[in-house]
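Sequence, please.
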């Protein structure tokens, strides 16, 4: 998810100031994607420049509120309606690491896989604990569920890698 569209989604609920957007963004993503407040204000400046948000006055403490414009609502609607393609996701560093371990000389690929399996299992346990303790609603639960499913899929893929290597070495 882009920060740009995440902030637009939050602004679709009404005017917000920068720090409020940061807090709500992190709460919505289950604190799995921390934002630097500088990122928030830099993104708000770009959104304002692009005409998708506008300063919407100030709150009682004098903080500048930002409001989504009609152009911003249209951009957000298009973003929600457009599926995320496989090519729009960043490269998977783990896949590259395993592939390079197989290709490199003098690397114990089984050890690389084992170390990752143990780390993935620990992450899965931490995510499961976080899910049990989650109190921030559906958005946080869905983010944690997604992370759990990805960790489970990673574990299955690592098991598959082990099997392929055993087959190759047999």
């Amino acid at each position: 998810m882009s920060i740009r569209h995440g902030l637009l989604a939050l602004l679709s609920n009404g005017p917000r100031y920068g720090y409020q957007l940061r807090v709500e963004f992190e709460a919505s993503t289950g604190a799995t994607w921390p934002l630097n407040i500088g990122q928030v204000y830099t993104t708000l400046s770009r959104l304002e420049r692009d005409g998708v948000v506008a300063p919407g006055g100030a709150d009682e403490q004098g903080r500048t509120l930002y409001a989504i414009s009609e152009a911003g609502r249209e951009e957000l609607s298009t973003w929600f309606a457009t599926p995320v393609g496989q090519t729009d996701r960043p490269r998977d560093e783990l896949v590259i690491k395993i592939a390079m371990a197989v290709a490199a000389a003098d690397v114990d690929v089984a050890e690389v896989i084992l170390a990752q399996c143990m780390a993935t299992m620990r992450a899965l346990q931490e995510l499961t604990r976080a899910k049990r303790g989650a109190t921030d609603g559906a958005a946080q639960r869905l983010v944690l569920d997604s992370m759990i499913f990805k960790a489970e899929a990673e574990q299955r893929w690592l098991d598959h890698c082990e099997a392929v290597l055993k087959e190759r070495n047999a």
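The radius of gyration is 21 Å.
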